[in-house]
Structures are given as C-alpha cells and as structure tokens.
Write a structure and sequence with these properties.
It contains 11 helices and 12 strands. The chain is of the alpha+beta class. It has 3 domains: about 60 residues; about 110 residues, Cupredoxins -  blue copper proteins (Immunoglobulin-like), CATH 2.60.40; about 100 residues, Immunoglobulin-like (Sandwich). The strands form 3 sheets. It has a 5-stranded mixed beta sheet. It has a 5-stranded mixed beta sheet with strand order 4-10-9-6-7. Bound molecules: copper (II) ion. The site of copper (II) ion has 7 residues, from loops.
C-alpha cells in the first residue's frame, strides 16, 4: 500500500500526468471508506439518518444520470463538430426556441422531482410523526468551546459529554450554544443541525439498537474543534431510568483519606477548581464554566470524548491539560495552569485523581 502511495506521489510530481494521478488519489481515498466505521452515515441505525440517506441516494443517482448525459453530449459535440482547417464559417443563427424550451423544462421537472422528497424530509426530520413511540423526552444540548453540556429539564439533571437516551423512542434535542457556532451530529442517527448562539434549533432522533454512538461537533468552532466529541448511549427504558436516578444522587460520599485530601484541594482557593465545576452535594463547587463533575467517574470518556476515563489519562489531563487538548479553556483560564499561580504537585494530582475517581 505504501509503495503505491509513493508511486502516486511520484506521478503527481510531473504535472503532465496530473489527470492520471487525481483519479488514482481519489480511488485510494475511497478505499479508506467503510460503512463499518463508527461515524459512517451509510450504516444508519435510526429513522432520521435513514431518511437522510434515502434522500442522499435520490440526489446522488439523479445527479449522476444528469452528469453522464451532459458529459457524453458535450464530448460528442466537441468531437463531431470540431473545426477542420478547410471549414468555411458555419451558418450564423440566433438561438433555437424548441431546444431552449426543452432544456428549460427538463431541469424544472428534475428540480420539482427532487424538491418533493427534500421538503418531505425537512418536515419529517423536524418532528417525529405519530408512528413513533414518543414519551416526549426533551434534552437541552449546549455547545461550548470545546465540549457539550446535556440537560434533562424534566429530571433537573445536568451532565456533560455523554448523553443517555432510551432505545426505540423518539427523543427531541434542543440545540443551544453558549459562545460560537457549533453543530450537533451523531452520524448514525441524525444531524447535522447548527447550534447557534441566541437562536435555538432542535432536532429529533431515535436509536433503533442499544449501544454507544459517536457524536461530533460539525461546525468549525475554534482551536480545539476537531477534539469536540461526545457519546450517545442508547439503552433500555429500565437502564435509562436507573441511570437517571443514579445521576440525581450525590456522588461525593467517599471516606478514603486520599480522596478527602483531593476534595479539599478541589475546594481550595489555590487550585480554584470549584469556581468552574459543579459537584452536586458540596456547597462550594457550583461553577459552570467547565463540565459538571457530579458523577464524573461514571462517564467512560472525558475532555469531550477524546480521553478514556482512567487514572493515567486523568493524571495527564490534570498535569498539562494544554498538551492533551491544545487551546482548551481550562488550561487557558485556570490560575494553576496558565502560570499565574503555583502549579499542582504530584501529590496534589494523586489526591485530585482519587477524589475525581470516587465520583461514581
Ligand atoms: Cu466545533
């Protein structure tokens, strides 16, 4: 594979062969595509993405047929009516009414043909119709540089970067942004719909199978945009209810002395963590600049889905957040990380890790 790549690079160098190299490069790129990939839109697992895929295929095939017909006609005409050295000036005419009517009417018919399913899809993807089980679960998703907050208003619950929904039910997601444009996208389920500051959007989705779905911000939103991901966890109604009631409890109960020490550091002015993070059940940590950490340890990933939630990664994150996720606002705005206050010692990091990992 690598030598093929080298060959293509070599061919590209000679501009003469660019027409050969471009299709080859395209072919190579397409070989990398697979519908098994976690973010493939061709492996749909919900009605909304299915609808979007059907629409894509309609547009794709209609577009392909038009492209081929036009390309063939153009080449045929170029070759057949090419000027020859001894040709005299051709007859000069002004238009052809019949032809012009034909090539105006055909595109109008085509556009009407694709407009009908497109408009239907727009309506169908904005609200679930009555054939779906709809328990009116509404989730508020807020895009922030560079992570996602999820709020369940009817349960009084706020969490971050991992959103749980019941499988086989239509769920409405209201989309907000706190700062700049973001876009909400779960490739196998639904999206992309923009999250616009001061102009709320919404979408609905349904997961047909239980599992973990990958989500991604799909609108360039600044330095760490490519690292702004989330996970959507679809589970049975019972599991979902159990998750909700667990998330509503206070997690902080640990009696482990190291975790206790970490809690005190978290709440200290020197470290300042409490100013940006909420931990329900403590009376100091009520900040909302960073993700809600109440049940931090129950999440599989952190830093917007980019790091697996384990001891080692957490140490890395607390030591040098900017190395792990360049540009993130914790590194930029927290005194211990931007150098305006003493940085954390290894012992302090160990204590903070023990504390955070106790928040089950
Ligand atoms: Cu983004």
């Amino acid at each position: 594979m690598f030598s093929l790549y080298k060959k293509i690079l070599f061919i590209t160098k000679s501009a003469k062969n660019i027409f050969l190299a471009l299709p080859l490069l395209l072919l190579l790129l397409t070989l990398g595509c697979s519908s098994k990939d976690p973010q493939s839109t061709f492996d749909t697992l919900g009605p909304v993405s299915e609808l979007q895929l059907e629409l894509f295929y309609i547009l794709f095939w209609v577009g392909l047929v038009v492209f081929i017909l036009v390309a063939v006609a153009v080449f045929y005409i170029i070759l057949k009516y090419r000027a020859k050295p001894d040709d005299s000036i051709p007859e000069q005419i002004h238009g052809n009414t019949k032809l012009e009517i034909i090539w105006t009417v055909i595109p109008i018919l085509l556009i009407i043909g694709i407009a009908i399913p497109s408009v239907q899809a727009i309506f169908a993807s904005s609200k679930p119709d009555s054939k779906y089980t709809n328990n009116n679960l509404t989730i508020d998703a807020v895009g922030k540089q560079w992570w996602f907050e999820f709020e369940y208003p009817e349960y009084g619950l706020i969490t971050a970067n991992e959103v749980h929904i019941p499988v086989g039910e239509a769920v409405t997601i209201k989309l907000h942004s706190q700062d700049v444009l973001h876009s909400f996208w779960v490739p196998k389920l639904a999206g992309k719909v923009d999250m616009v500051p001061n102009n709320d959007n919404h979408l609905w989705l349904q997961a047909d199978e239980p599992g973990i779905y990958y989500g991604h911000c799909a609108e360039f939103c600044g330095q760490a945009h490519a690292l702004m991901r989330f996970k959507l966890i679809a589970e049975t109604r019972e599991e979902f209810e159990a998750w909700i009631s667990h998330q509503k409890t206070n997690a902080w109960t640990s009696s482990d002395p190291l975790a206790q020490e970490g809690m005190e550091i978290f709440m200290s002015r020197d470290a300042g963590c409490y100013a940006c993070h909420t931990i329900q059940g403590t009376d100091k940590a009520k900040g909302n600049q960073g993700p809600n950490l109440t049940h931090f340890a129950s999440r599989t990933h952190f830093a917007a889905g980019i790091l697996e939630n384990n001891q080692e990664n957490l140490r890395k994150w607390l030591k040098e957040p900017d190395k792990v996720k360049p540009g993130n606002l914790m590194a930029k705005n927290a005194a211990v990380y931007n150098g305006t206050s003493d940085s954390l010692t290894e012992q302090e990091i160990s204590a903070l890790v023990a504390f955070l990992r106790s928040l089950q």
